[in-house]
Amino acid sequence: TMKNPVPQAASLLLEKLLLLVHVRPLPAGSETETPPPAAPGYYDTSCFKRGDLLEVPRTLFIHFGIYLGENRVAHLMPDILPAFTGDRRQIQQVVTNKRLILGVIAKTASIRVDTVEDFAYGGSILVNHMDRLFEDQVLGSEEAARRAEKLVGATAYSLLWNNCEHFVTYCRYGAPVSFQTDKFCETVKMIIRDQRSVLASVLVGLASIVCLGLAPSTTLPTVFIPFFLWMAG
Predict the structure, then answer these.
(1) What does the pLDDT average to over 25-37?
(2) What's the pTM value of the predicted model, to 2 decimals?
(3) Where are the bilayer-spanning segments (predicted)?
């Protein structure tokens, strides 16, 4: 018998959303909230210049930042903590998955400065790879770095209008755009266009809750589509 493609499509869509906002779904029973960063000195920063746009490709998403020099990277991450405190020492601590998820729900984020190791978490780094898409729109390196530095601090978060890619494209090219969000939205439209798929996804989610109990892996797919529509606004 053939497997129903609807639950698979909904599951893939949820996975893409979580990865797009930098959340890594954890294995059952895992006590680690975030993956360990690479050891200090893992990256050769001598090839980076102040104002460079850094990309860290993942399986289904890309994380972006602006290099500020001296092993420092400015990047935008969803985070609930800035909504409750202005204590920089607390905010600067490694952002856990709980803080990320709550930040997405509350639409809050922070543009923070981390080491290259904390920013990349062991991933490979591409430098100024997006320049080819913007041709003559590339701003000066110092201008890009200064824009990033001025924006450091708490900010609003929106998957569609203000994510890490919007931040870096504004800093380096003067216009906030997000190509990976555009691709993600096309996937959302494809699924939502078929109302039967939406209904089937919800029913599958409810059945999973009944059979397996309340857990992120069962409740998130059930509420994902209406939640995304609200969050995108």
Answers:
(1) 48
(2) 0.69
(3) 198-231
